[in-house]
Amino acid sequence: MKVSSIQRVRRLPLWRPLGVRNFRLLWMGQAISIFGDQFYFIALPLLTLQLTGSAFSLGTVLMATGATRAVFELIGGALSDRFSPRTLMLASNVLRAVLTIIIAVIIFTGVIQLWHLYALSIAFGFVDAFFYPAYFSVTPRIVLEEHLTASNALLRGTNRLMMPLGAAAAGLIIQAGSFAAAFAIDAMTFVFSAAMIYCIVEEKRSAANEEPRQTEKFRLKELFASIGEGLRYSWSHPLVRTLLFFISAVEFSFAGLSTVGLAMISKTRFPGADPESIGAAAFATMQAAFSCGMLIGMFLAGLINLPRQRGRVIIGMIALAGVGFTMVGFATDIVSAALVLVVTGIGGGLANILVMGWLQARTDVRVLGRVMSLLTFSMSVLEPLSFALAGIMADVSVTILFFIGGSIMLAASLLSIMSPAMRTSD
User: Fold this and answer.
1) Which residues does 232 contact at the CB level (< 8 Å), separation at least 6?
2) How confident is the model at residue 66, as a pLDDT?
3) Which of 292, 392, 408, 416 would be a feasible disulfide site paired with 422, CB 3.0-4.6 Å?
4) How far, CA to CA in Å, does 191 sit from each of 154, 184, 236, 311, 376?
5) What end-to-end distance do the CA atoms of the chain give, in Å?
6) In a domain, 212, yes or no
7) Residue 15 belongs to a domain with what CATH number?
8) Over 60: is that where the pLDDT of 204 sits?
């Protein structure tokens, strides 16, 4: 009976991509890399504040990464289609390892200055602009189309698991007063990830399914022409165009609600016993509830086999998330808010995985990197705008913020129902 149960678990769709050696390598490398990223994400803000004590300096240091990434992301997508995504990912991880080692040495020697952190942020933004389009376009090249949903569920679900683990470990290291050690650990995880990517063996594709890999110099004119081709393809393909607009609208409302909105509602509505409290416990509780829901939804997407009606399921799940966020805005106690956020997270996580796998599967592999870069570019532009607008609205009324954010999700769902591409495409 025990053996039979184990066998049934192994047959679940979620685990099938792990039977592919290349995917296992990608999965292991990315999991460890995400664990190490948390050392960077926690150390950089704290180090900036230790050096300057200025929130403005912290904001501009963080903004430098996003702004640089946005500038170069479309170029990164074009290069992902022209050259090997594996090579771009490998080079990116090697460069990021070198950067973090350099900053660790600078901190250890005691000569760290603010301009070093600006340089680090700009360099990371530049490298990330080439890594992420390649990363999102490599999965369809190494797994079968029917395993794409499970692959994304494993990758993104594991990433969500590694984030709190890495953050906790980073907190302990930094609490001991060692910023240098935090960056050094991050560097080692990049080395490990680079080693895993190096071991990936790329399969040769037919010329009809690949952008020509030319050995001659990739001229600037050709580069911009390649970007233009990706933009035209994204606009002319009904399903791809609809999915890109749908994802952008949902992410725009989600970014501000999940950070600024939850933080503000914690401070103003659930401050705790101490009237002067900033609501840290409530904020952590709601974030944990939403993250658990997202994780459940992501793994649930990998467990189910949904070859048909994906559009309607995605629309329904985002509508559920929109209703959930609206309800959070009217919540009067932390328990009800947390329970609603678990359900909201399940809907969001399930839709997140299904929509990404669908977009990857229905995009021509020749332009996959450029389409993925267009998606990440829109996130880089819309996310800070969402933060800013959420802050303005939250100062007026946090209830209005959640109502408007939830309404945007509902509107995106309703408009998508009107799209034949979303309703009828499988």
Assistant:
1) none
2) 82
3) 416
4) 22, 11, 40, 39, 24
5) 37
6) no
7) 1.20.1250.20
8) no
